[in-house]
């Protein structure tokens, strides 16, 4: 494992430079530039708040706040977006960087690190605005917010392990990429993000225990809406899957890295 991590660490300058270049290139030809990093997530929060809190007056059971449902929805979409971005982009990262892989000598596993850091930058910008919104409406969760750190660690482990494994498989079997897009779409709707789990029939609710993203989403929503600490024991599935998929991804990479360049 040290033999894998050390080369990536030695290329940290290359990694951070790549993250910076991608962030800058996203808005290079835009008149507002980096301001779009604020405008886009702020627009999402405002729209959800106006539609669900003011117009539809949607409510969550056991919560009196008129903003509860918009908070529930926003935190679910923000955190799911981080997961979907890492998995979705990981499955094409080796294919999209084929020329770089063939012409430049660098640790190949730098690519998922760069991708993850870019996704985290986007997430942090949106999440900070979301926290400011919570402060304004008087719904800031307080010290329990610190539980976000281990939750994000578990989610990143799961997303990165899944993404790297799919990215390697997609080099050899291109249908993998198309399948992942469809699966992520259905996975989103099969996870209680836009609807509360309490409305699900008992049989469906019982089946949710096989969805590794369900305990993560429930933990995030519990933190932000109810101010409650996560049920750490419920996170065993995404944690175990994350460890297994990460080990599988590294094993596949070590065995197939040479063949990957030829396939690209």
From TrEMBL:
Subcellular localization: Cell inner membrane; Cell membrane
Leader sequence segment: none
Keyword terms, alphabetized: Cell membrane, Membrane, Polysaccharide transport, Sugar transport, Transmembrane, Transmembrane helix, Transport
PROSITE patterns recorded: ABC_TM2 (PS51012)
Residue ranges of every copy of the ABC transmembrane type-2 domain listed in the record: 32-256
Pfam families the UniProt entry points to: ABC2_membrane
Claim: Signal is one of the keywords in the record: no
Entry superkingdom: Bacteria
Membrane topology field: Multi-pass membrane protein
Entry annotated with the keyword Transport: yes
Residues annotated as transmembrane: 34-55, 67-88, 109-137, 143-173, 180-200, 233-254
GO CC, one annotated term: plasma membrane
GO molecular function, one term: ABC-type transporter activity
Annotated GO biological process: lipopolysaccharide transport; polysaccharide transport
PANTHER family referenced in this protein's UniProt entry, alphabetically: CAPSULE POLYSACCHARIDE EXPORT INNER-MEMBRANE PROTEIN CTRC, INNER MEMBRANE TRANSPORT PERMEASE
Family to which this protein belongs: Belongs to the ABC-2 integral membrane protein family.
Name of the molecule in the record: Transport permease protein
Organism: Thioalkalivibrio paradoxus ARh 1
Upper lineage: Bacteria, Pseudomonadati, Pseudomonadota, Gammaproteobacteria, Chromatiales
């Amino acid at each position: 494992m040290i033999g894998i991590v050390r080369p990536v660490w030695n290329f940290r300058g290359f990694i951070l430079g790549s993250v910076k270049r991608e962030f800058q290139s996203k808005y290079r030809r835009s008149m507002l530039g980096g301001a779009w990093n604020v405008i886009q997530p702020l627009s999402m929060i405002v729209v959800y708040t106006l539609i669900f809190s003011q117009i539809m007056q949607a409510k969550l059971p056991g919560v009196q706040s008129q903003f509860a449902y918009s908070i529930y929805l926003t935190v679910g979409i923000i955190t799911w977006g981080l997961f979907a971005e890492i998995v979705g982009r990981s499955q094409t990262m080796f294919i999209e960087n084929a020329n770089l892989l063939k012409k430049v000598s660098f640790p190949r596993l730098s690519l998922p690190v760069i991708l993850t850091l870019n996704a985290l930058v986007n997430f942090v910008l949106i999440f900070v605005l979301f926290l400011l919104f919570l402060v304004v409406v008087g719904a800031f969760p307080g010290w329990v917010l610190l539980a976000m750190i281990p939750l994000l660690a578990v989610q990143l482990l799961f997303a990165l392990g899944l993404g790297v494994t799919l990215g390697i498989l997609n080099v050899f079997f291109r249908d993998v990429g198309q399948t992942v897009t469809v699966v992520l779409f259905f996975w989103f709707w099969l996870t209680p993000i836009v609807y509360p789990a309490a409305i699900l029939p008992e049989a469906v609710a019982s089946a949710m225990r096989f969805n590794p993203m369900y305990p993560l989403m429930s933990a995030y929503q519990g933190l932000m809406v109810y101010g409650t600490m996560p049920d750490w024991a419920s996170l065993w599935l995404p944690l175990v899957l994350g460890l297994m998929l990460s080990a599988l991804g590294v094993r596949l990479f070590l065995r197939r890295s040479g063949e990957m360049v030829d396939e690209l």
